[in-house]
Request: fold
Amino acid sequence: MSLQAPDLRQFAFMSRINLRFGIGAANDLPAEILALGAGRVFIVSDPGVSKAGLMEGPAGLLEKAGLAVERFTDVEANPRDTTIEGIVDRLKAFGADAVIGFGGGSAMDAAKGAALLATNGGRLRDYDGQNRVEVDPLPLIAVPTTAGTGSEVTANAAITDAERHYKMSIRSPRIIPSLAVLDPGLLASLPASVAATSGIDALVHAIEGYLSLRSSALSDLFAREAIRIIHRNLRPFVANPSNQRAAGSMLYGSMLAGLVISNTGTGNDHAVARALGGVCDVPHGLATAIMLAPVLEFNALACPEKIECIASDMGLPGGVDAAEALVAEIRGMLADFDLPATLGAIGIDRKVVPELVEVALGNVGPNPRRTGRDDLERLISAAF
Reply:
């Protein structure tokens, strides 16, 4: 299919990016942090990263450079506001003047939350929504150890309100990390299941950003490149995360997709995935993977030309068969990666569907097909 002329109607695109990329990039952290004027560094991570020992090399280099280092390694898969508020107490007692989010999206989002509370005060629920962060957070460095969320370059943080079982979305340009360090070598020990679910999450970002009602010529450019790169490299990466070419490509594609969704928002897939995370504590990447095929089937009616472009970018048949081929490819990926393809397969009870609908309904705005309560109920039910 030939490329269409870009839609150059008036648009806005916000980006702030300070990026270091490449094998061994994490070894340059001491110089980068010293350049920020910091001397006491608080690292936020998760048990998987800690168990794999990924953090110890870079942390040791920080200490060797004369920096004081404190670690928190207990961030959960869907980071809770109560956990992060506890981190802030430790961070302040330590006297941190910089924060590192070292891990997947959960660790980086937790670090964003801790850095903003350290300077703004209050509770995280005070910042749920758009542009409620009034003071710059502590300097934040993001070091992803998965290729998925793109949190290292986004103005978003997804954090669960533990009391309300609700996944908040804190959105502000102020929480974009001061520095993102993308080192493909840090992905080598990823379990295949994590590589798969985080990689599909990155693909969903690119697809939903491209289909978003808030998309633009510039976001489309990044989104389509991300779709091509991620689709081409996802299977080789899951098969062998130590494949540095595939890992580097996935990190790059995930980063591009992160830039996209910071500007376009996401659609029904993420609306339902956030609800599943808050209500049922489903890991985010897995939730987006399960919902992708049903959401694409639902949205195909609203944007057939863009669906055909996505199929083309993946090397799939176009024309009237594009949507069918695209859905079949997504389901084929789940099968190839031995991932559950339905909500029933991960033990979700149909009784929670009404609650999921109510939570998801507030996040469907950018979706290309108008979505009401009944639509969401059918969409979630179809995922069983």
The chain has a mean pLDDT of 93. The first strand starts at residue 19 and ends at 21.
